[in-house]
Amino acid sequence: MAFQEAIKHFTALMDEVNEQQRATFQNMHQGYPSDAIVRFLKAREWNVPKAHKMLMDCLNWRLQNEIDNILSKPIVPVDLYRAVRDSQLVGVSGYSKEGLPVFAIGAGQSSFDKASVHYYVQSHIQINEYRDRIVLPAAAKKHGRHIGTCIKILDMTGLKLSALSQIKLMTIISTIDDLNYPEKTDTYYIVNAPYVFSSCWKVVKPLLQERTRKKVQVLQGCGRDELLKIMDYSSLPHFCRREGSGSSRYSSSPGSDNCFSLDHPFHQQLYNYIKQQARGHIPPQPTKQGSFHVSLPDPDPEGVKIAETIESQLIKLEDQKTSENTSKLSHPMNSLKIYSE
């Protein structure tokens, strides 16, 4: 009953927004305003004033940064976009048996080193907007019911101590999601987790809100058998298709089977859609060529704490590794072996 009262109160507050805010809110909720309201309420533990402020901040962020037009801003030339795709590994491999889109993320091998931060942020927001405005409504139409969330499978293959350099950008991206796209992921599946991840997960897990913690499932190996319970084999990301598949960046048949690649049908459809939208969108004034700059949010204190915890754990692991290597080198038998080689 309290939940229904909160939704009713929040809905009444949303009746007071101005025309511009209402228009961008419609782009967000795609005909399901109550669903959007519930997502923001969940993100603020059903506190109506806090959830209302969060949504209003989100609407103003969308207006100030022209997020409604971001799907008409292609990253060009195509070689630059391919470089972004090769270093920010994300794609859609298929759908769960319930119709939820399956997003695959190569967390361990995304290097984010082929373009500026703004291109990676632009690409991430474009994928979010395409998911919310095109992918989810299409899935809902196909299944005859509202589908407002997705599944994410994070491949940790190749995660190394050097991930430290990527923490800042990943914190920016996760903050954008937390503040403006809350509660869009049903479950996070972690696969191919090396020791580095396991070690970091132990210290990060207690810092997460219980709501988030419940969504994360760390699967054994590539997770194939567990994932086949909720999706068909054809929807499995390439890195989940067999044990020891080796790399999330390449599969045995690169290109259309590799859901990270620009050649994959999802990315082809997304890129063609953005190019088509660009042709039909006439800007009010000439725009200079370059990345679509979005104001980067101040990180959430909770997110900062998590990032700092991961950072200190990675440094600790690095020190431990250095110490072990020094210890091995200082052992007389090892010195003799090295000398003889």
Describe this entry's structure for a reader.
By secondary structure, this protein is of the alpha/beta class. It has two domains: 63 residues, Helicase, Ruva Protein, domain 3, CATH 1.10.8; 206 residues, CRAL-TRIO lipid binding domain (Phosphatidylinositol Transfer Protein Sec14p), CATH 3.40.525.10. The protein has a five-stranded mixed beta sheet. Helix 2 packs across helix 3, helix 3 crosses helix 4 and helix 6 crosses helix 7. The longest helix has 30 residues. It is globular, with a radius of gyration of 22 Å. The protein starts with a helix and ends with a helix. This is CRAL-TRIO domain-containing protein.
User: First CA to last CA: what distance?
Assistant: 75 Å
Poorly predicted residue ranges: 244-255, 284-289, 335-341
CATH architecture heading of the largest domain: 3-Layer(aba) Sandwich
Give the overall form: globular
Main beta sheet: strand number and arrangement?
5 strands, mixed
Rg, Cα atoms, Å: 22 Å
**Number of helical elements:** 13
